[in-house]
Amino acid sequence: MSILLPNQTIGVLGGGQLGRMIILEGRKMGYRFATLDPSEDAPGVQVSDYHVKAGFDDLDSVDKLASLSDLIIYEFENIDPTLVQRLEQQTSVPQGSKLLEVTRHRLMEKAAIEEAGVPVAPYAKVTSTDELLSAIDKIGLPAVLKTVTGGYDGKGQWTFHTKQDVSAWLAENDVSARTFILEKFIPFLKEISVVVARSVTGGVKAFPPAVNLHRNHILHLSIAPATIAEETSQLAVELAKQVAEHLQVVGLLAVEMFLHVDGHLYINELAPRPHNSGHYTYDACNPSQFEQMLRAVIGLPLIEPTRYHSAIMMNVLGEHKEAFFRSYDKLPSNIKAHWYGKLEAKTGRKMGHVTVLTDDIKQGLDQLDQLKICPALTETEEKAIWTQ
Question: Is 383 exposed, middle or buried (0-12, 13-18, 19+ CB in 10 A)?
C-alpha cells in the first residue's frame, strides 16, 4: 500500500462526533475530508471539505463518496457490510468489511473473541421460546438478552433476574421475530476498556485502560488511569492486543471488559472505531485515539501512547445542556470542554464532553461535582470507582 499524502482526501462514512474529532485531527496533518451522512449539519459534516447528503443505502451516493476519496473510513459500525464491500471495489477501505461484519453481529463477535483465546461470559443463540427457556436453564439467571444486531446505549437489551421477568417479556415480545443472544450476567466490580490500534503495516499499540461508569446504560464517566491493580491493567492491554491481532484489525478497536469480583476479566463488546471511553486521549495523551487511527489506516508509524495527565472524561447529554452553558465561564483551567455542534438537545443524546486533567482523581471528581452539570456521584458509584 502506498502512503496517503497530505492534500489527499479521506472519505468518512458517517457524520457524527467521532467523525468530527477524526477530521479535526486529520486537518492538522494536512488531509481533506468528504463525509456521507443523511444530515446536512451533523457534527462531522460541519468540519468536512465535501459532503454527500444521503442515506447509507443510497448506492449512487456511496459511489460518489468513493469518487471523491483517496481512502475511506467508517466512524460507526451500524452500516451494511455490503456497502463497504462495494466501496472496497472502488478505493482503499483499510478497516475493511470483514471486521465490520463481525463486530456488528454479537454472535459472530463472541465466536471471534473465543477463537482469539480470550474469555467471554457464557452465551447462547436464541431464535424461539424453547431456545430461550433452554438457554436460561443452561446459563442461569440473572442473564441479559440482546438483539444480535443494532442497539446501543442499552437499547435492544433486557435483563432477566427471575423466571417471572422472562414470562413477562415473552408476553409482550415475539422471540421468533429476530435472532437474539442470551448472555450470563457477570457480577462485575468494574467495567474497563482498552483502545488498541493496529496499522496496515501490522504494528500494534494500546492506550492505557480506562474505568467506565454508566448511567441509564449511557457512559457517564471514563477515568484513566483505570483504578485497578497494575497486573490487571497489564492483562487488559494484552487481551485487547490479542483480540486485535486475531481479527487483523486495521484502525482502532475498543475492547470493553468486565472485571469480575473474583479478579478475572471477561470481554464484553468490541467497537471497530474510536470509542467514547477513549475521548480522554484527546487532551491527556500523545497521540489522541483519533490521530492514532489515522496513522494506522494511512500507514504512518504508530506512536507509543504517552499519558501526560490523569484524566476524567464526562459526557454532557441533552438534559445537561443548560447547566453546562451556565457553568461554561466557570470551568477551571484544567477542564477542557468539547461541544459537538448538534442543534437539538434530546434527553440521553451526547452533546459534548468535558475532560478534567489532574494529578489527583479524587480532586478531579470533586471539581466536576462542584460544577453541578450532572447529578453528583452516589455512594454506589463512588464505590464502583474505588473498589479493587
Answer: exposed
CA 113, CA 100: separation in Å to the nearest integer?
A: 14
Q: Which three cell numbers stand for residue 270?
A: 468490541
> Please, which residues have CB within 8 angstroms of residue 201's CB and are 6 or more apart in sequence?
299, 301
| pLDDT score, position 156 | 84
Distance (Å) of CA 382 to CA 214, 330, 362, 368:
12, 24, 10, 13
Mean of pLDDT over the chain: 95
What is 122-184's CATH topology?
Dna Ligase; domain 1 (3.30.1490)
pLDDT one-digit tens code per residue, 303-361: 999 999 999 999 999 999 999 999 999 999 999 999 999 999 999 999 999 999 999 99
**Distance between CA atoms of residues 82 and 262, nearest Å:** 42
User: Rounded distance, CA 119 to CA 337, Å?
Assistant: 37
Tell me which CATH code domain 188-386 carries. 3.30.470.20
Confidence of residue 369 (pLDDT cuts 50, 70, 90): very high
pTM of the model: 0.94
Measured CA to CA, the distance from residue 323 to residue 316 in angstroms comes to 10
- Domain 9-93 and domain 188-386 have a common topology: no
Q: What band does 1 get if pLDDT is binned at 50, 70 and 90?
A: low
* pLDDT tens figures, 299-316: 999 999 999 999 999 999
Instruction: Report the DSSP beta bridge partners of residue 157.
Output: 146
Residue type for position 202: G
Domain boundaries, the chain: 9-93, 122-184, 188-386
What are the two backbone dihedrals, phi and then psi, of residue 208, each rounded to the nearest 5 degrees? Answer: -60, 140
Amino acid at 297: V
Binning the chain into helix, strand and coil, the percentages to the nearest 5 are 35, 30, 35
Looking at domain 9-93, which of 3.40.50.20, 3.30.390.50, 1.20.120.80, 3.40.1160.10 is its CATH number?
Answer: 3.40.50.20
The C-alpha torsion from 346 through 80 and 23 to 310, rounded to 10°, is 70
pLDDT tens digits for range 100-157: 999 999 999 999 999 999 999 999 999 999 999 999 999 999 999 999 987 665 678 9
Compute the distance between CA of residue 276 and CA of residue 297 in angstroms, rounded to an integer: 20
Identify residue 197 by its one-letter amino acid code.
Answer: A
In the numeric block, the cell 475530508 is attached to 33
